[in-house]
Amino acid sequence: RSLNGRVAVVTGAGSGIGRAIALRLAEDTARIAIWDINAAGAEETAALIRAQGGTALAIAADCSDKAAIQAAADRTRAELGAIAILVNNAGIAPFTPFLDTDDDLFDRVIRINLRGPWLVTRQCLPDMLAAGWGRVINITSSSVQTGSPAQGHYVSSKGGLVGMTKALALEFAPTGVTFNMIPPGFIDTPMLRAAPIDADAFAATLPMKRIGQPEDIAAAAAYLASEEASYITGQVISTNGGRYMG
Ligand code: NAD
How remote is the CA of residue 53 from the centroid of ligand 1, in Å? Predict the structure, then answer.
């Protein structure tokens, strides 16, 4: 389980799934850079990691803003060292019926959920290529498999992220850098609790009769980040309690 003190960037780690991933990778000895637009949330996660004996750097950054991401990468390298692991987790998930959706909202969702991972990956990848070792883990969504009403913008953005992951997995397959995806099912986070979904009623419809916990996603991320996953790229670990298969 040891990540050998490698530096991991986790975007959106100030809350929910990203926080659980950051805590888990830190447990596995990675040194964590938390990049989140929410400064207070990022600091809170960093404090939790330090309390469990780990190393964490909280950086307030909008992952869709190129200058902010460049500055975050520079600071991460200066304070922690070369970036070896990247988890593109930051995202937003509004619900708005298609015909009522403002075009600006579409642009905002694409900017954060798709352009964000594009920009962040471009900043982090050169370190991994120089080392001949790297892990990029993209948090997609089971809604790419199932669709989701009133989320045309969101599902479009996550579908784009699936395509990006596959393209980069092939382009960089010979380099020692892998690109994989985790599409969460319904996971108990502030995002889900803010959605117009009755999470507890939904849980009863799931094969496992429970919605997922952020730690369920963190366990999949820890595996993909590990040495054990070195022959896996362009793949998907669907973490959804058995609801969607294939
Ligand atoms: P969350 O809202 O609890 O956390 C998201 C984090 O991302 C927050 O800390 C937020 O501040 C940060 N963030 C938002 N915009 C940002 C930006 N522009 N720059 C930097 N940080 C930004 O949500 P979550 O449920 O933990 O979701 C994490 C990821 O998992 C998202 O990509 C989401 O789409 C995906 N996902 C979640 C579920 C679920 O059921 N919770 C299901 C499928 C996919």
Answer: 25
Instruction: Quote the ligand 1 centre to 246 CA distance (angstroms).
Output: 24
Name the CATH code of domain 7-229 (choices 2.40.10.220, 3.40.50.150, 3.40.50.720, 3.90.460.10): 3.40.50.720
Extract the tokens encoding 149. Answer: 């009403």
Cα(174) to centroid of ligand 1, in Å? 31
Instruction: State ipTM.
Output: 0.99
How many other C-beta atoms lie within 10 A of the C-beta of residue 184? 25
List all residues 6 or more positions away from 186 whose beta carbon is below 8 Å from its beta carbon. Answer: 192, 197, 199, 202, 203, 206, 211, 212, 240, 241
For residue 180, what are its two tokens?
């994989």
Question: Any idea how long the chain is?
Answer: 246
| Tens-digit pLDDT profile for residues 123-152 | 999 999 999 999 999 999 999 999 999 999
Q: pTM for this one?
A: 0.99
Q: Is the C-beta atom of 72 inside 6 A of ligand 1?
A: no
Residues sharing a CB contact under 8 Å with residue 63, sequence separation 6 or more, in sequence order: 11, 12, 35, 37, 69, 90, 112, 116, 117, 119, 120
Candidate of 137, 145, 189, 197 to mutate for ligand 1, largest count of ligand atoms within 8 Å of Cβ: 189
Structural domain spans, the chain: 7-229
Reported as a single tens digit per residue, the pLDDT across 137-194 is: 999 999 999 999 999 999 999 999 999 999 999 999 999 999 999 999 999 999 999 9
What's the CA gap between 65 and 179, in Å, rounded?
Answer: 22
